[in-house]
Write a structure and sequence with these properties.
Shape: globular
Distance between the termini: 44 Å
Number of strands: 5
Strand content: 5-15%
Oligomer: single chain
Strand order of the largest sheet: 3-4-5
């Protein structure tokens, strides 16, 4: 499979099947395994089905979850609206399994290998987020499952407790890590008094990381609304609100503002 999205689009426009098999596997699954979002998006636009069941019971969307790709999971999940109820339940459950079991443990279970795990840092050139990528044998997984779980819960109406989201962020104590950033993004859109008070309480914790997380969330609560084009938080009586799902360009603006603190 070529990794050039423009070439893929040209092939699709000339009549190529977006779900053709590549060494026995549909090309959308190859794009997911390669973490190639542009190619995956081109295939989706041409009619590839992210919910196509393979003989092993997986789908391109479930493979994105297993692979720990936060944004790729979101892209595939948003392609089918509304997503059928079984998949809406399966996505967060599958992500939670990876979180609770641990990425390395799941890698060893899937591969049956006991050797050392290769770990590299992978950065998003557009936003600046990073995550750890782990490889064992021929299986590679990115450590974004907490972000996958967080975004899927929010998208499908699960209000994750504040303390649980804090714990997810602190599991990756770096404000440029994708999980930390997604927790901030999620809490920063909960425009209600409860989140405001919980965040202020977090700001008074003795631990520096708790205070740093609280500062990021408070900054997003305050600056996020004007960036979205809505009235500022303080002018709306701290009313409940909502906004669309993750937007990479908007998030980048918020993070640039916070980095100037």
């Amino acid at each position: 499979m070529t990794r050039d999205a423009d070439e893929v689009r040209a092939l699709l426009e000339s009549g190529a099947d977006p779900e053709t098999l590549d060494d026995g596997l549909p090309v959308p699954c190859r794009a997911v395994a390669a973490y190639d979002e542009p190619v995956a998006e081109a295939l989706l636009e041409a009619g590839a089905d992210p919910l196509r069941r393979l003989t092993d019971g997986s789908t391109p969307l479930l493979r994105a979850v297993d692979g720990g790709s936060h944004h790729l999971t979101y892209v595939l999940a948003c392609h089918r609206v509304p997503l059928p109820a079984p998949e809406r339940e399966e996505l967060p459950a599958r992500a939670r399994h990876w979180v609770e079991t641990g990425v390395e443990a799941e890698l060893r279970r899937h591969t049956g290998l006991t050797g050392p795990v290769d770990r590299v840092r992978v950065e998003d050139d557009e936003v600046g987020w990073w995550c750890e990528q782990l490889t064992l044998g021929d299986l590679t997984v990115r450590g974004e499952h907490r972000a996958v779980l967080t975004s899927m819960e929010e998208r499908y109406g699960v209000r994750t407790p504040f303390d649980e989201l804090v714990a997810r962020a602190l599991a990756h104590p770096d404000r440029d890590h994708v999980v930390w950033s997604d927790v901030v993004f999620t809490l920063g859109r909960r425009l209600d008094e409860e989140t405001w008070q919980w965040t202020r309480d977090l700001l008074n914790r003795p631990d520096r990381l708790h205070r740093l997380l609280a500062a990021d969330v408070l900054l997003f609560l305050i600056l996020g609304d004007p960036i979205k084009g809505a009235d500022p938080f303080w002018d709306r009586g701290r009313e409940l609100g909502s906004c669309p799902g993750p937007n990479r360009s908007r998030t980048r603006k918020c993070r640039r503002s916070s980095s100037r603190r």
